[in-house]
Give the backbone structure.
Amino acid sequence: MKRLLNGSLLIALALMLGACDNPSASYNHDERGHDDHGHDDHTHVEPSRGPHGGRLLSQNSFTLELSIFDTGVEPHFRAYPTLDGKSIPPDQVELRVELRRINGLSGGRVDQHLFSAEGPYLRGASIVEEPHSYQAVVRARHQNQNYEWIFDSPEAQVEIASTMAAANQIAFGQAGPGTIRETLTLTGRIEPNAERTRLVRARFPGTVRSVAVQVGDVVSAGQTLATVESDDSLQTYAVTAPIGGTVIKRSTNPGESSGTAALFEIIDLKSLWANLAAFPSDRAQLRPGQSVYLRAADGTATARGKVALIASSITGPAASVRVVIDNRDANWTPGQFVNAEITIDESPAALTVPIASLQTMGTAEVVFLIDGERYQAQPISTGRRDSERVEVLRGLANGARIVTRNSFLIKADIEKSGAAHEH
Amino acid sequence: MLETLLRFSLTQRWLVIGLVSAFAALGVYDAFKLPIDAVPDITNVQIQINTVAPGYSPVEAEQRVSYIVENAMAGLPQLDYTRSLSRYGLSQVTVVFEDGTDIYFARQLVAERIEKVKNALPSGLSPEMGPIATGLGEIFMFTVDADPAARRADGKPYDAYDLHDAMQWIVKPQLAQVDGVTEVNSIGGYERQLVVAPQPSRLLAYGLSLKDLTDALEANNANRGAGYIEQQGAQVLIRSPGQFTRVDEVKRVVIRRVDGAAVTLGEVAEVGWGSALRTGAATMNGREVVLGTVFMLIGENSREVARAVGDKLVEIQRSLPAGIEVRAVYDRTRLVDKTLQTIQKNLIEGALLVIVVLFVLLGNLRAALITALVIPLAMLATVTGMVQNQVSANLLSLGALDFGLIVDGAVIIVENGIRRLAEAQQHRDSPLSLRERLETVYESTNEVIRPSLFGVAIITVVYFPLFALTGVEGKMFEPMAITVVMALIAALVLSLTFVPAAVAILLTGKITEKPNPVMQWASDRYAPLLTWAIQSRRIVIAAAAGLVVICLLIATRMGREFVPSLDEGDVALHAMRIPDTSLTQAVSMQGALEDEIRKLPEVERVLAKIGTAEVATDPMPPSVADAYVILKDRDEWPNPNKPKAEFVAELELALSKVPGNNYEFTQPIQMRFNELISGVRSDLAIKIYGDDLDVLAAQAERIERLLVEIPGAADVKTEQISGLPIMSVVPKRDVLARYDLSITDVQAVVATYFGGANAGTFYEGDRRYGIVVRLPEVLRSDLTTVGQITVPLPDGGYVPLREVADITIAPGPNQIQREQGKRRVVITANARGRDLGSLVAEAQQKIDTDITLPDGYWLDFGGTFEQLESASQRLLIVVPATLLLIVGLLLLAFRSLKDALIIFSGVPLALTGGILALWVRGIPLSISAAVGFIALSGVAVLNGLVMMSFIRRLREDGKSVHEAIVYGALTRLRPVMMTALVAALGFAPMAFNTGIGSEVQMPLATVVIGGIVSSTLLTLLVLPALYRMLHGKEAPGS
């Protein structure tokens, strides 16, 4: 009876408590909720780990712990051999590790890692390059016994069916040589070419007898502008245009005394200056001779030219960059506002990728290599860039097949299911 | 007192009937007021305070808004806690009050505090409280969409602006009028704005600043009233209208005269319709649409409101331009109706079964009807009680109602009444006189009233542990306990008053107890069995004890779940992407996802909300989408019998192939509850509080690494707080001085060019659109040009932005969460393959020894383990106390511990059947099943009680122990069988129905049926055996 009573008490308790045991059911809320895009390794089977944090490879009684050591040094392999659980001197073991990697070329790349004894372990001679994503073939020899292991260690790698990739507008391209054009944009105004401006005076002061031109008239060199009767000789002589151009100022009328002041101002509008403001932070990049593409702010004219002069200002911080414009088509007028794109540097680069293929993962810049339906994030170091391409300094092979459109999607897929970093 | 009440009921029987009828009428009236929904509302009493802060990054939103609003709420009466979320452009503070706080009172308090704090907030920001709704509030969703073939008046197809306009100015104002609707929240489409997009170089050419533009716009767009004049006796109002009426007028606004020429806005800027910066989008079947969600006011009847909204939409359709269509895409009525059907079917079928059993076993139609009448009467009284207590009718609250249990008391009284009336008539020929009849009824009732009262009291008492549940479990199961207890109490009162009165009135004339063939058959079989059981009592008792032990072992091996989840019919899923996903990218990814979902033949349509709607009831970043997969009716499925879980698994498999998304599968109502409750529901949650986000993140990472190492810790995760790329334009202070600029000057240029500056409103009838100055889209979307935008200098010159500011892009916080007035980050973990208690202890110990937090940082442990712990502690007291109370009640009834314990032995015996039934059907243990066990304990005790009291009476009458047992057991066979059969059959429809919602009731009903079968069999055999063993040596009549 007592036992029954106890039993019933127990079961009642067990039921009430047990029922609350698993909150994974219906109306549970998970704090991660919306923010769940972290490391979800449900498909990732953790290999067994040894005391040095490395992967344990066992065959018969021989066990090799293969770890990547990167504390304070460039990452390299360290292997700890044991027999029946006891350490054995590393110099009794011959070891070779082959890493087969995706590099965007057919066949991929194979890194050979040779080992030599160092203290209690075998040390790999070469650096294990990023990413630590590969298929490893480990061959060991101990006491005339050969051992071989093959394992996959993917990192920052995903598989996407080709139909799915096509449906998501993922497009491919190749890394290759290209030209990088670095530019700087400045703004400024169109001004008359000061070298092509003339003030016309009467050589012998006297009374102006006639004036032949009006403001706005286009004159050719030697054309008579006015006639003046010299006060000295009382001869009437012609004042002629020293250059061809447009009369922009006329400060005399018949009957007036010419004095020594300028009677006319003539500007040759076939050549103009664009004076661009270069602020201190931009100054160092500018050199005379750099090519310039000019666009009028009102969109009416464009022109190409070269940096003719960089003149420091004594009134303000901005230096003045002068570009001489050929205005024989009369597209430009002084006073216009211009945007100028100055080519700072234009030179070929051995290896470039389209800017659209570049993504940032963590702090690294990456591109995505393709191997069939597998995509591998490959960190690269970049150099110069322009609006279309970026120079690759390290981390990529020429001709590597990479994702060039919607690369964000690959990054999104990797980061949502990114496996742990192999150490 | 009982006697007085009985006497009164008999003498004033017509009055009693009258009162009962009146009460029933009240119940009918209340039935129309009863709020009905599919599931109980588990939302806490909370108020969301949303502050839209255009352009604010998470850090600014937190510092300038969330912090201030949150702190203003401190010290409110009945405040439970506050938490806040700061995201791009939004601050949301959630104020949670203690359960039971009146929501309107709470809103009043919060409104006062908001009013006080408004001045401390940056100008132009105004905090607003979210809709007065709970997790059940999102009852209806509809889309506003255009027929691709339809054309506007100007011959062009309708665009996303038109759809937004239609929603904003035609649909919303009308829907908001529907009774019970508290909010219509819209997401998707493009909000129309009049965008003035200056060409920066043209501004430079004319020496104009952005401020000149906004000033000019503001100075040229106003109406003014100017009083009135009197004119020949008439009053004439004067006004000077100057508002923009056409876009052309905006272009012609003169900004300033430059060199004698007037520079107009059209000269330096593009003026045209554009879109406000979007925070959210909506898609359906892979296409962008405008989606509206209707929120129901707290306490309204979802079915009625949803229906009214549906009707209104049909009306609204008529007022829309031809070609634009509104379409209901999610309607709660569908689910509620289906759930109601299930409940109704179960209750009606159960009631019918009960009536049939009563008739067959009693063999008297009138008696059966009296007993059956208790069902509707008790039900109506319960409805009244539910309305009074504001308990809504839903699957869970009505799910534990067993009419069998309700009529138990009445069955016993009626059964005894018939027996005694028949007995009394046997000795004479004429019918009984009224006095005699009343007297007989009185005596017969009095004879069994105590045991049946005790029985009902015990069944009521066993429900008490349910009241010990708190939090979400409490909210789910308390209504159930309240409903059942109310129904039982109603039945109790009825069997004291109505039943005797009705018996006295109706059971007139000649009452004969016909030998009932069913009963005869049963008792023929029972008699030899009983004799055998008494003789081989040791074997019987040992076998029973063995059975109990075996079942306990089975129970420990059974699967467990918390609450079986209610199938809502549709599927909801979160599609989660990495934090820096843009809205446009998210829309295209969602499109690919929806194309994939639609390939499944069971799917009718799929719709999704991406990012945040206009009212931020669910503030999601653009990287998260809430998708609703609406399924076809089952008969349209290729395989109508495919289990829902199998479909979800197929969906999951199909979606796992779509790149870039992570998923969480849930259901629409469930999803909304999760969003609102948003407490940590993982087993273990470690919250670190502190100031610096980087420090918090670093410490969280350390703890995460520590937790991963602990065996049994699974799903270890740190809340993602960063990862949003942020472009910082940091003004260079020393350089600014050189140009005579202030930080504000630089920031104003950046804010205006990229975020936009408001420059008034464009009115078009009732419609009003913001006028905004910002960079043309081509320039805005080009990161490389940021450094080139120019900052005007006070002296009229200009300087490029890159000269005066450093521009960098780096990942920054994507959201900042605060709780209890401090920034916090959460690390969560679940226990797998290890008991939670030891896991938590180890984690605590490891963190204590290994982690030292910097000064000003602290952590606390939370998670369900806390609730579990407190629930366990409470239950550890409540369950034994309840069991003791039962024994106490039995003791009170019998004044013998021995007898009390004999009856109590029915409880473990009943549990065996319950466990076996679950095991056979493969149903895991859950709270629902536990409720079944609770009900079962009550029935089991009632069975024993009926038999025991009779045996004792016989012994008091001087019969020997053996005689008393045999005669007592045989006589009480009928009531025992009846109470058991009605209770079991009352639940039968629930146990075997498969309609929507049945999964919640099934475990409960299965347990009760299985348990009653075993308990009845065992009561009939084990109880007599036990009694014989324990009382065997006593003299008769002692």
In short: Chain B touches chain A through 102 residues (CB under 8 Å). Chain B has a mean pLDDT of 85.
